[in-house]
Protein 1
Amino acid sequence: KHLLILLSLLILTFPLVAQETGVLYLKKVNGKFGWFENGNDKKDWKYIGEIKNGKPDGTGVLIHTFGKYSGELKNGLLHGQGTYTYVNGSKYVGEFKDGKKSGQGTYTFVNGSKYVGEFKDGKKNGQGTYTYVNGSKYVGEFKDGKKSGQGTYTYVNGSKYVGEFKDGKKNGQGTYTYVNGSKYVGEFKDGKKSGQ
């Protein structure tokens, strides 16, 4: 009797937990992009993984000549945790939302530079740390992909700037400390000292 009840529960819940898997291609037909069961491996985006309502939904792999994505998708878009490896060797590991880098992530550039921090709408946005290939480092705020707000930039030679940034440059109040210990405290404009 218990076995019959258990089997009945399994049969009733199976359609709820079962996820269709397969291969889909993202391609343009009649001027509109859509997901199709057939396509060209060399030209179209190829998806292998979980599918819901004819679109990638769940965990899968997306491959194109631009690169490769492995992770979560929702309603045909990158959404959730994933890894995107670009054809040039750069790599992003982190969160996606509605097809764009959004949330916490790590972007490693092909030259070895690395950004670890927050993203919004595909750009560095919020708190983050950018380590340059030469060893220089910026820790602070980003807006629309650029250093903006409060931050600390440590140069490879040991000099350091602590203060405000705007559009990727030192801008506003700040303190620049030279390697020998001397300091400039004051205004900066467009990356340069502005004042005494």
Protein 2
Amino acid sequence: SAKITNEKISSAKFLQNVFSVFVVNGKFISEFSEINNLPNELFIENIVRTQIDSVFEKHFSKYADIYTDAFIAMNTAFAEGGVFIYVRKNAVIKKPIHIIHISTVEENTIANPRNLFVIEENAKVKIIESFVTIDNKAKSFTNALTEIFIGADANVEHTKIEDENELGNLLSTTQVCQKEKSVFTTHTITLSGALV
């Protein structure tokens, strides 16, 4: 894959006053992510190195069925990174979380980013995922999978912004499990892409 630079990161970040999380070619990049000084009720981690094992194990791969969708099975088998977000009970996270997926490749590449968001009861959070292609020299295919658990009376606002240009292909699957009286709002904005 192509080298990631501060310039590429800066060009992909278009929101201010957010917790920014970077996933490049399917892998969580902690050194560019702005996740220091998180509220005590919020955890944002690399999905392959989570410190909250009990919550992760209870929810990971529980809502996306590998037996009903080949792309879910492919993601489950080949994911090398992604984002784990955990919001504790009764937490109100005032700053949105912006996950920025960047494809930057020099040869035809498939990436399988995997996300898991666990929002406990009566919590509130806004999560934005953007998908961009920067300086691709070849075609990229992103097979993104996000599982979201929303506890009772919780409120989650989720937005996807897809801007992959003519060399970027995106298949993005979101599977949600909602408990009673929870609210889930999702919006998808497609700006460009060869396949979105």
